[in-house]
Design goal:
Length: 182
Amino acid sequence: MLSRTADSLFWMTRYVERAENIARVIHAASRMSLMPRTSTDDPMAEWLSALTATSSYVAFFERYDEATPERVVEFLAFSESNPSSIYNCLSIARANARSVRTALTLETWEAINGAWMELQRVRRDAVSPSDVNRFTSWVKDVSLHVDGSAFRTMLRNDGFAMQRLGVYIERADATARILDVK
């Protein structure tokens, strides 16, 4: 296997996994922000934790003066200036998949390409605060579909091993960031 192919397969799955992790963080922050709080609690604590857990805290405050739920969701989900936004993760994952199209099964390619096309539509429609949970569920479904199609249809060769490695390293990285925050 060419190192370029291995690299693209690794990063394709790593970025899909990262998009799912960010969606889970957004979903958790959204749910936690609805919990009752005392008057001394910071109303933005969950959203600031979401920025920290995704390693986006510094980049966010370079762009914005104040954190609001809408801004945090926009930055984590759709901002082109955030290299780890869901939009950028799926964009990079698709670019990597496209570069190694012949190393993927039809099902895996269709899963990631279909997700990219749907994300273009979702982005144009803009996700309202009431749609955040539906959007994060969609991202988790995309990750499940891409990962599942690769797991079920790929030959068990070096390419498959590189994809699995990308998934597991990203999971370990996300777990370490969350543990660091909490």
